[in-house]
Amino acid sequence: MRQLFIQQNLNNPHLGIGRVLDVNNRVIYHISGDMGRVGDELILTDLKQTPLAKIVQEAGGLVPKFRLQVGKAKVGSFGLSLQFRELLFISRLNWLIFVNTNTRSYSVVHVNKILLKAQPIASGILKLDLFDDENIEALTLIIAFLERRQQTGSPLAIPRFTFPNRSPQLVYEHFSSHEH
Q1: 127-145 pLDDT, tens per residue?
Q2: Is the separation of the CB atoms in 127 and 119 below 8 Å?
């Protein structure tokens, strides 16, 4: 088992900036990139800025689609759904990811083998327990991606609708006052 810690900057809602630390508090990976639009990428790099893994948004809308790459090879893909926020399937790899949106904890399994467990230990810090040495970069990036989406109110979180120049109370009253 290997333990890593993801520390992300959650101040900018679309810019993914973070670092991955080992148990000795040394930075071993950087996470950077944009999120939210088709073509945006979240990239895991080593200390020399060599890309190790990448998540690329391929489609937008209510069910955005993403491609997972390790090096230059596509290893999997997935879509996010508003309906099934607690379960995610990574095709090709056959990984199931279980998300607890209340506790911000994550589990990744393949058939009957646990590959990763993650849980928050402090504000902005997520502890990863990795049980699959061959896929450390891909697993780390997926969890950083999901954590970023959860914290910024993107599709894994409850959808937020905004109405310019109206208070939320007025909008609520507008919709609740109609009788059918």
Answers
A1: 999 999 999 999 999 999 9
A2: yes
